[in-house]
Amino acid sequence: MVVALIAPEVIILWAMRQWFSARNIVKKFKKYGWGKSHAFLVLMGGFALYDGDQFCGYLWESREEIDERYWDLVMAHHARVQEVFRWHEGDSMDFENQQNHEGRVSDIPTLPRFQVDLVSEKELGEKMCLLEFFVANGYITITEDEIKDNLSQGDFISKSVAVIQTSWFLAQVVTRAVEGLAITELEIITVGFALLSFGTYFLWWSKPLRVRHPIRVNLQQRRCQVERPPGHTFLSVLWMICKLLSLPVVLILRFGYTILRAITYDFIRSLQGAGRFSSRLKDQPTGVWLTAFLITGAFGAVHCLAWNFLFPTPLERSLWRLSAVIATIAPFSFVTLGFLLYFLGNVVGVLGHILTVVAYIVARIALIVLAIRALRDLPPSAYQAVPWTRFIPHIG
């Protein structure tokens, strides 16, 4: 919240980095029918490897430490699955209807739900990661529609409403300027936020709202066992009674766990590199940073629109102009200091970067404070509404 208020351009920088990273993931997984929603889900830590109830790690689009650690175990389990269900290259059998002479095979939760061309270990090479292996062999089968339905409920509607409201606000500001009505400094600041929000919504349109519980991929399935008729013994009845008696305690503990998890969830996942702002963009495109600096400069230049506005005091007008100039030139100064850091040494460049960031933050805070203080003494036309009846055809 603080970052979005003081430096909203950082949010759109994150959005651009995630958009580029998602595009790379889509290119890699396009042959499996993946889209932008899948890619964003990966970046948000939406797929996790579990060994029973033990969390092993998140599954990423490239080979990581978790891939090296569990690769052999996954390959061994996959070989057992092929052996149990008699899967051969180009030939799969419907295991749900298969029965042997001893009884029916018990359910295995994460086996492929559809027939796929199995990928052998020799065909994998060194480039395939665990995530791609699970997708290629049908262990992960979630579709883009399922992601939108289950993880983005109401997301399309909320984004559409936000875009419509933002467009309506900008239309009001433009109309007030055309009609010669006063525009407040706070409205100018909001215009800057509104313009940035359009870019953010465009880049994150296919991104799920949140991932509270990642999709579990089990490292080892339950072993195939012959189902036997259920029987009631003294121990089973006693265990059932104990479970019923402990149910209130379990519910209380589960409720407390849910509250604590909701409070600390995003923070912990951000430390693990799986937060909603994680991009995992290893190669930094020059265009991303260049666009970010240009957007930051344009965002600061929006505040210069209030250069000749009426302020309560001359001092506040001077402070507004100074802060607007600093907010406009700060990103370009940051680039210039980057060259100084390269040619003149670390001390000068690092000190310059620190001073630039501090000056930018102070200028942003000053603009917000001045805009709020200016509300105490507004011109009369600031209270007048836009006469929309002059622009919209209607029947009187």
TrEMBL record:
Q: What transmembrane ranges does the database entry give?
A: 188-206, 237-257, 288-310, 322-344, 350-372
Tell me if Transmembrane is a UniProt keyword of this record.
Answer: yes
- Keyword Transmembrane listed: yes
Q: Which UniProt keywords apply?
A: Membrane, Transmembrane, Transmembrane helix
Q: Which PANTHER family match?
A: TRANSCRIPTION FACTOR DOMAIN-CONTAINING PROTEIN
What's the name of the protein? Transmembrane protein
The organism encoding this protein is: Moniliophthora roreri (strain MCA 2997)
